[in-house]
């Protein structure tokens, strides 16, 4: 089927080269696609790596191996296969990943554990080893490509190509972070979402890179949801080549560490929002801001209960300020809440305060807000200082059409 | 909008009168509907009552009061308002319910706590007290009506009228159970689902009636889901008038207690399945059978993760045997599972065994099964003896159309 480009799409940004990173793409022909489907990134010796992986128990071999590889803290290459997730394929799936790792390690003269592999696409079909081998051979001899080419090649049902850039100054040196990501469906919280890759020329110790990435995850990838379904393959990796020549960041005591952590958080937030903007069938980007909860974690769970509610998401699709459904979602979240202290608003206008509809509620400005592309939902629980922001998209006929007809 | 009758609808059964129960309906005109919207059931003095209520924290005053009233164990009347749920309406909502209780108690000469009230419909609009008062006055002076009339009157977005009947023999006497239920959207597990009422002429002590109802709930109402959204008003009440004259059932040691408990479970299962058959937009009834879990509770949670997955539900809507999405849902359930022991099947045919697609998998019989109205999904976790059956419906364009356009 032909899936229309998301009306929430954003243009691919101008991303400069990152010293120590070389990108290449090739056609492994995992599916009958007239496009490249294998992405290869070569990384300078000594590149630090950090990662986030799906919590789905039925995860792919790529995820299992990636988690083990993380212990070494160093990476020399990344391979991303699109069109086949290689998940739920038993020992044959694992053999395919180990074959890719060995082939690249042999070429680079590095340890296999320094070669990271991700795959995305249909579940349950072992990745064909012959196609992978030929694809990698082709990539290794191809001309380097742009960020946009690489970002496009890792996509599957994505309707637009997603990238982001951020910078930070560390000890007088400007370091750059480049990120690419793919994802549109099977997007749910409480994990590292979909396939996302961040590359920086900063010099960062692996443990601190992981700390920055994990902290950013809490407020970015873990705060988005498209359909509450957690993928078997979700992976976000960050690579720091060190080519910028700054004194390596080892902890928050290092000079420039705060600025770098802020830049990581910035690029993660950009990438996470791009995924929501390409949520399957999305017509509106929804920001749910929860305040007054007993803790930040509680606020996030309430926010996700709202963002995952099909009744809330269809109401917004219908441009209906149906705050009763928001009440329902707050109440089912399983978190502390008091119906008689609850306030709900849309687009900066309260519709209900402290457990009752506003006596002088004027629906006109709220109705106007709901006709837009970006919808703001505010919930104040009136209990404490906990707060969170969660992002999702509306639930439309497009989601049904994409998922009832397409074998992902 | 005009919502088509569910293709999974079942005809209303022949339900005999239950001695000690008199049904009446009237028009309170809560909404602009050309039909009765207020149901009144008068119950013989001494009628035992048991109940199940939503766990949604933002529940209605009807639910709060009903939970308190349960302590008395006796009921003389039930009033059900359709078109307005009276939820999230603060003290005005509570006053409206207390007004109805007082009016009926005054008429019957009973305690107000013996009058049970439920309301269903839009959230956030206080139930108009004048309309309720006039509606009840009209009901009290109207002719008794049929089970089908009463079942039709409690409905809102329901596309067909739902009733069930069961019988049991207690000490040589046949007792009858009659049930009516409404519900179509905002249906989720872990609670007593929607508005359901069971009436029996059996003599049963309230505590044992509650024990039977709670036990039945675990395998019926708590095992269905339409859209994962838990309503603010869900209520199931069981009334036992005692008119059959059997020796009152007080525990499982009483003669006929097992048969009665089985009949309660039977009627609860019938009623729960009728709600799924009228799930918003439903085109297929889906039974998810989970075995091999570490416990029954774990099996149920895995079953609900599958039944609530929008990707599984849209795949079945599209008649696609996409078992990879079932793997994903098992893995995200947060329950013990081992990818390499997992087996998945449809309609009695395994598609994957022990973590891998079947080598000789023949898709034809599975594809044929998926074209039907009733779909069976089987999951064997291969870990233990825990099992559960969960029911849901597919997710279709109809759900989007109903919920993006209708203010519930």
TrEMBL record, chains A, B:
Keywords: Acyltransferase, Amino-acid biosynthesis, Arginine biosynthesis, Autocatalytic cleavage, Cytoplasm, Multifunctional enzyme, Transferase. Catalyzes two activities which are involved in the cyclic version of arginine biosynthesis: the synthesis of N-acetylglutamate from glutamate and acetyl-CoA as the acetyl donor, and of ornithine by transacetylation between N(2)-acetylornithine and glutamate. The keyword Glycoprotein does not apply. Heterotetramer of two alpha and two beta chains. Its EC number is 2.3.1.35, 2.3.1.1. The record marks 120-121 as: Involved in the stabilization of negative charge on the oxyanion by the formation of the oxyanion hole. This is Arginine biosynthesis bifunctional protein ArgJ. GO terms for biological process: L-arginine biosynthetic process; ornithine biosynthetic process. Pathway: Amino-acid biosynthesis; L-arginine biosynthesis; L-ornithine and N-acetyl-L-glutamate from L-glutamate and N(2)-acetyl-L-ornithine (cyclic): step 1/1; Amino-acid biosynthesis; L-arginine biosynthesis; N(2)-acetyl-L-ornithine from L-glutamate: step 1/4. The record marks 192-193 as: Cleavage. One of its GO terms (molecular function) is L-glutamate N-acetyltransferase activity. The active site is at residue 193. It comes from the Bacteria. Substrate binds at residues 156, 182, 193, 280, 403, 408. Belongs to the ArgJ family. It is found in: Cytoplasm. CDD domains: OAT. GO terms for cellular component: cytoplasm. It holds the Pfam family ArgJ. It comes from Croceibacterium mercuriale. The keyword Acyltransferase applies.
């Amino acid at each position: 089927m032909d899936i229309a480009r998301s009306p929430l799409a954003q243009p691919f940004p101008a991303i400069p080269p990152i010293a120590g990173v070389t990108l290449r793409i090739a056609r492994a022909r995992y599916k009958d696609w007239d496009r490249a489907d294998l992405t290869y990134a070569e990384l300078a010796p000594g590149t630090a790596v950090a990662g986030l992986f799906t919590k789905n128990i039925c995860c792919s071999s790529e995820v299992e191996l990636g988690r083990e590889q993380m212990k070494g803290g160093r990476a020399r290459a990344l391979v991303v296969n699109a069109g086949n997730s290689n998940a739920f394929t038993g020992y044959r799936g694992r053999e395919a990943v180990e074959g890719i790792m060995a082939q690249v390690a042999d070429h680079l003269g590095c340890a296999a554990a320094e070669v990271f592999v991700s795959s995305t696409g249909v579940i349950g079909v072992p990745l064909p080893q012959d196609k992978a081998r030929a694809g990698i051979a082709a990539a290794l001899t191809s001309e380097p490509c742009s960020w946009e080419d690489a970002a496009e090649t890792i996509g599957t049902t994505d309707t637009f190509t997603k990238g982001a850039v951020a910078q930070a100054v560390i000890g007088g040196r400007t370091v750059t972070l480049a990120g690419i990501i793919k994802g549109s469906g099977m997007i749910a919280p409480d994990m590292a979402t979909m396939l996302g890759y961040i590359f920086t020329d900063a010099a960062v110790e692996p443990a601190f890179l992981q700390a920055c990435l994990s902290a950013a995850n809490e407020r970015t990838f873990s705060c988005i949801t498209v359909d509450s379904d957690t993928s078997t393959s979700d992976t976000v990796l960050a690579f720091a080549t060190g080519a910028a020549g700054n004194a390596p960041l080892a902890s928050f005591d290092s000079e420039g560490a705060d600025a770098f952590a802020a830049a990581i958080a910035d690029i993660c937030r950009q990438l996470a929002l791009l995924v929501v903007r390409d949520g399957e069938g999305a017509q509106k980007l929804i920001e749910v801001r929860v305040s007054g909860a007993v803790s930040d974690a509680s606020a996030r769970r309430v926010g996700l209960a709202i963002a995952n509610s099909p009744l809330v998401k269809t109401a917004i699709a219908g441009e209906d300020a149906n705050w009763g459904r928001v009440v329902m979602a707050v109440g089912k979240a399983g978190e502390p809440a008091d119906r008689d202290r609850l306030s709900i608003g849309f687009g900066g206008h309260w519709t209900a305060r402290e457990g009752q509809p506003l006596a002088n509620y004027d629906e006109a400005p709220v109705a106007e807000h709901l006709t837009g592309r970006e919808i703001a939902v505010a919930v104040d629980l009136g209990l404490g200082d906990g707060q969170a922001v969660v992002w999702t998209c509306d639930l439309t006929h497009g989601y049904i059409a994409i998922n009832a007809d397409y074998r992902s």
